[in-house]
Amino acid sequence: MPHLVLEYTANLLPDFEPAQALHRMNTVLLASGEFIPDHIKSRAVRLDDFLVGDAAPGGFLHARLHLRAGRSAETKQDLAEGLVAALRSCVMSSPVLPVQITAESRDMDQAYAKAIVQS
Question: Are strands 41-47 and 99-107 parallel, antiparallel or unpaired?
């Protein structure tokens, strides 16, 4: 735990590098002291079909951080703000399109299972 899912719109490519964003967001999570490095599972999902407003030009980045329950609202807010800052650092200072950057930290249901398979 945690699971971090980054959604990004395809129109941000090639200027946006998803792998770089994942590394920067993982750095935020590790710096928080809340997580064990090997427990963080991050991935990026490219969105080819999306709509911003009523077809306004633009794109977005949205990070969803799924956590086990038990962290304070302040901690979850700090994590979300840190993820936004990390993503902001991955966007050109003057992007061709407007880019909305959002993040959320939420508790997962208590019913969670995990298995590790190795040779």
Answer: unpaired
pLDDT tier for residue 23 given thresholds of 50, 70 and 90: very high
Which residues on adjacent β-strands are paired with residue 46? Answer: 8
Would you say 99 and 59 are in contact if contact means Cβ atoms under 8 Å apart?
Answer: yes
Phi, psi of 13 (to 5 degrees): -80, 150
pTM for this prediction: 0.88
CA-wise closest residue to 77 among 107, 102, 100, 105: 105
Distance of CA 107 to the CA centre of its chain: 15
For the cut 90, the answer to whether the pLDDT of residue 115 exceeds it is no
Instruction: Tell me the β-bridge partners of 62.
Output: 7, 102
Q: Which residues pair with residue 61 across a beta bridge?
A: 8, 101
